[in-house]
Amino acid sequence: MPGTVDANLAALGITLPQAPAPVANYIGFNLVGNLLVVSGQIPLVEGRISTTGKLGAGVSIEEGQAAARTCFINLVAQVKAAVGDLDRVKRVVRLGGFIACGADFTQHALVMNGASDLAVAVFGEAGRHARSTIGVPSLPGDAAVEVEGLFEIA
């Protein structure tokens, strides 16, 4: 029987993909005690980066938000791979967002809301989190957004 988080995902029309495999010398997640650190996820959909380029230079805020949302879906896929039952997530502790953009772009927070809003929609109050969002000149594979996460696990 699906749990609350699985039901929330279904209600949102989200089917989790397989957790993306690391593309270099690192692991997708690391469970230490009751804290799960999930490596940065880019907006991969069926093995391809869905949104490439830079915010403010060809990539719109809305496209960036959608990319951040996809990154969060991939984070949740990693969490599921790590702990199995998503109802074991007691809290989304922190999200870190990296937004590929030029020096004059200042709407990082709006882009990252794509991930943050989904965290709350999926995990409810437990999805409210601390957050950092920074602009960077480039990301792996020319991804427009990357999101990393820290989760408290029961």
What is the fold's blueprint, element by element?
Layout: H1 4-11, E1 29-32, E2 35-41, E3 44-45, E4 48-49, E5 54-55, E6 58-59, H2 61-83, E7 89-100, H3 108-123, E8 130-136, E9 145-153
Parallel strand pairs: 5-6, 7-8
Antiparallel strand pairs: 1-2, 2-9, 3-4, 7-9
Features:
60s Ribosomal Protein L30, Chain: A; globular; 3 helices; 9 strands; 154 residues; alpha/beta; single chain
Structure, explained:
- The chain has 154 residues and is α/β, with parallel strands linked by helices.
- It has a single domain, classed as RutC-like (60s Ribosomal Protein L30, Chain: A), CATH 3.30.1330.40.
- Helix content is 31%, strand content 31%.
- The strands form three sheets. A five-stranded mixed β-sheet has the order 1-2-9-7-8. A two-stranded antiparallel ribbon has the order 3-4. A two-stranded parallel ribbon has the order 5-6.
- A hairpin with a 2-residue loop joins strand 1 and strand 2.
- Helix 2 crosses helix 3.
- The longest helix has 23 residues.
- The two termini are 19 Å apart.
- The model has no long low-confidence stretch (mean pLDDT 96).
